[in-house]
Amino acid sequence: MTTCFGSTAGSSSPPTEGEELVGPLSLSLLKPGQFNALRSRYLNPRIAPGAANLAVAVRDGGGRLLGVVAMAPSTFTPDEAYVLPDFAVAPTDYPRLSKLIVMAAMSAEPQLLCQRAFSRRIRRVATTAFSNNLVAMKYRGLLRLNKRSPSNEDGWKFQLQYQGAMGQHTLAESLQMWVTWWGAPTTKTGV
Hints:
Elements: E1 26-29, H1 32-42, E2 54-59, E3 65-73, E4 80-88, H2 97-105, H3 108-118, E5 124-131, E6 144-150, E7 158-165, H4 171-181
C-alpha cells in the first residue's frame, strides 16, 4: 500500500515549474496546525473553515505536496464521509490538479483511514461547493450533483451538493486515470 499512515514526513513544497508528477501517490496524516497552515496558504480565504476529524496531505512519489483533503463523519448519512475542504497546491503546471485530489479523496486508502478514524463503515463521500457557476468543474465527472440551491454565503450564487462512491479505486488507479484524462501540464511558449 502506498499510504504513509501517521507520517508527516516529506516536502511541503509543490512541484516547481517544469517538474513532472511521479507515482506512486501517498497520503500523510496532518496535525491540526499543519492543516491550518496549508489551508491558509492555498485555500480561498472566502471559504469558511470547518472542523475536520481527519486531514491528509496527498503527495507524489517524490514526496512533494500535491494537495490536502479534510474529512468528517456525515451528520446525516451514517456510511458517508463529508469532505470539508479539498484543495490542490498552486502554482503548478497542472491546471486540473484539483481533480486528482478529489480522485485521491474518493479512493480506497482514505476510505480505510476514515473507517478507522470514525469507527464506522464508509461507503460514500459528499461535499458542498460554493460557486458562481452552475457546476463546480473539479467535481464534474467525478461526483454526482445532488442539489443546486441559492447560496447562503456572501459572494457566491450557488450552493452545490455533491455525492459519490468511495473506495472504488486505489491511489495508484487515481493517478493513472487522472494522467489519462486530465494530467497534461500546460506548456510555456514564451509568447
